[in-house]
Amino acid sequence: MNKHSYEHIEEMIYKEKLPNGLSVYLLPRPQMAKIYGLFTTDYGSIDQTFTPINGKERITVPEGVAHFLEHKMFEKENRDVFADFSNQGASANAYTSFTKTAYLFASTDHTMENIETLLDFVQDPYFTDQSVEKEKGIIAQEIEMYNDQPDWRALTGTLKAMFHHHPVRIDIPGTVDSINTITKDDLYTCYNTFYHPENMTLFIAGNFDVKQIMKMIEENQASKHFPKVEKIDRSYPQEPDSVFEKDKTIKMPVSIPKCTIGIKESSSELTGEDFLKKDLLQDMIADFYFSKGGPFYQQLYEAQLIDASFYFDTNLEKNFGFTLIGGNTSEPENFAAKVRELLETTKRTEFTDEEVDRMKKKKVGQLLRSMNSLEYIATKFTHYNLAGVDFLKAVPFIQSLTRDDFNTFVQNWIKNDRIAVSKLVNE
Amino acid sequence: MQEFREKTISKNGINFHFVPTQKFKTIAITAKFRAPLSRETITRRALIPHVLQQGTQTYPDRVALQQKLDSLYGALLSMNGTKKGNYHITTIRLETANQKFISNEASIMDEAIALFKEVILNPKSENGSFPEATVTREKATLKQKIKAVADDKMRLANMRLLDEMCSEEQYKLHVQGYEEDLETITPDNLYSCYQSMVQNDTLDIYISGDIDPDTIESKITGSFVRRETETSIPKEESASPKNEPKTVIDKQDVQQAKLHLGYRTNITYGDKDYFALHVFNGLLGGFPSSKLFINVREKNSLAYYAASRFESHKGLLFVFSGIAPEDYQQAREIIVQQVEAMKNGDFTEGELNDTKELVINQMLETTDNAKGIIELMYQQEVGGKELPFNQLTDGIKKVSKEDVIKVAEKLELDTVYLMTRGDKNE
């Protein structure tokens, strides 16, 4: 067990890679009342085409399988896993993103049992034709619920406009039609390929005894058998740098139109410090311009093109990245034109020392604030860890960034053909 | 787990609460202004947070204010309005990094207190009023926000349910305000409303984080001074009893129907049945192991969400579900059956104990959240009853099956609201 201490933020992490390949991280926080456990597989909605474990040829599975699988993990032959956690005073949940599927619990008691339950239920699939059929109605309702949400439609529409082929353009839960084609065999194929311990990370944070927990996890894993595996062969289509559609209009019943600008940030593979640097700079610079009081925010605000729903968001994953800027606006055309015009001016930006200092301070403070939450630390640590980055070292890394780093990034940030506009208007 | 202690002092017409805890890397100052809900002021009180964030005397516009916040290590200033029982509560909160985690920084705390005071007591004003341009612009912002509720169907359904269920009660008031009231707002009457809020509302200020209460006490109590005020108590009101539950159906252009039910619990925060109400809600629809989730979703595949939640101060309980429009009758029957099953005591001792643990677990988890701790404490102020955390959890531990059945028997279905697919003008 390796111990890693981060003195500047008073945190400690214990790491271990188990013989079966599972990566385990423990972050003790004795002041807290609770324990948060997060069991993540490096498998999300974009992992649609791959060679199955022990298979010879690549296959492509229906849209929405990763999310469907996540739902079905909770049902066992004679019981429901939510009930198991409930019996132990814990609340459990799960989510599927573009790149990950994660299972989690929070509890303030029965620590050992809850961690074991988390490991055991995720490592013991039980799918039948009947249970797969039954789930289709529930997921169809989930999809219909999202389809009624203008924010969701604006987001997914913008992704479809930005990306030509990359599966990030596919809705995470799939479509009502695609999920209706999913079979028990699809679920087992994906499960066996992607839920191997080698492809998974367990992160436990909160109030617990480190030695006792690590020993229990080791024994639990040693008692199970997993086949030997090679690196998983996944395939993603070639994705151009440019956007697929520069201008797109979605129609649905809505009281106030929405407009979203998507900046396609990346379509190549990044790891380690390159990843962290791009991730932080893209976020700090978007924040500089578009957060409340930022120069672009202020111009949009004064031109009455935005309201309280205005937002921006940056994302970077191993082989794609994007920034979104959008919100409700009564003038989607003018909003889009103005944002494009403002973004165009960033090429000539020279940040002052004072501006760089303020951006760095703000980001450091945001990180410290977010570390109040065990959920956030567990999620972010796992996310960055998969990209080869130690999240808990982000604070000193930000402090080490120079004015040149900021200027180089901003001057090369915007390319006209990497911007997509998606408008959502009343039908 | 570290125990949390609260030190409270009342001084200068303000209740100050000090909450030292080492759980967090930040320090938060939270002010809660409380006044009875009223149609006269609700839209103004919805607008005030928007205007206050546009600048102060020292930082005269949003840019200057934001740059000050950013340079205080991204201090987060947030303001919002909520309803609790018959009260409206305006919350103003400033959260900053604790300077102990940043090398060579010793003044963040002092500057944060000064800025917090400035934002609340010295907003940008001209001749004893808010600047007209700011008010006009922020009215437009609020107007859009009011309109946008129509696009959030879950929220709209909750709002429509309350419109119908509490038609004779203040609790129906929309916390985001009313479009038609915006026209009556002027910089002058908005400023008067703000002054009244600052001077006459019941005011609680919480400081939480890794702080030394003694050091911070003099800093904060010296910064906020006002004359003593009387707590204004909302008028007692009661809804006219309904012989039969009312059913309301709205047609909207939606794919998924929303079936939301409103019940009267006849139990509020100070009541002895309050602990059992927590457990009742947990068994009915608070968790994925609850009756609603299991029966509406898991057994019958009718919904993606099916849950319940209760309001502590007004005595209301809501059931929410998102269903296919054609499943309305079936879903309604199953939901009503679950409440009946509770009355019949159709749950085991094991389920009862598990639920009690889940409820307590959820409360303990709330204490790990910087905002959650304050909300738990503030419940006591609004409820007008001291109920320290340990008493709350002990009370829940003691709940018996009979106690839960008694809660079920007190429960009355008031209104069934359905938003479903169809032409609005049908």
What does this protein structure show overall?
The complex is a heterodimer of chains A (427) and B (426). Chain A is of the alpha+beta class. Chain A has helices at residues 65-72, 81-87, 111-122, 129-147, 150-162, 176-180, 184-194, 210-222, 272-290, 295-302, 332-344, 353-370, 374-386, 394-400, 403-411; strands at residues 2-6, 11-17, 23-28, 35-41, 49-50, 59-60, 91-96, 101-107, 200-206, 247-252, 258-266, 311-317, 320-328, 419-426. A 7-stranded mixed sheet of chain A has the order 1-2-3-9-4-8-7, sandwiched between helices. The longest helix of chain A is centred in the N-terminal third of the chain and has 19 residues, at 129-147. Chain A starts with a strand and ends with a strand. In chain A, 47% of the residues are buried. The mean pLDDT of chain A is 95. Chain B has 15 helices and 11 strands. Chain B has helices at residues 39-52, 62-71, 108-121, 132-148, 153-165, 179-182, 187-200, 213-223, 274-286, 291-299, 328-343, 349-366, 370-383, 389-397, 401-410, and strands at residues 7-11, 14-20, 26-36, 76-84, 87-97, 202-209, 246-252, 257-264, 303-311, 316-323, 412-421. In chain B, the strands form 2 sheets. Chain B has a 6-stranded mixed sheet with strand order 1-2-6-3-5-4, with helices on both faces. In chain B, strands 7-11-8-10-9 form a 5-stranded mixed sheet, with helices on both faces. The N and C termini of chain B lie far apart (58 Å). The model of chain B has no long low-confidence stretch (mean pLDDT 93). The interface between A and B is large, with 72 and 77 residues.
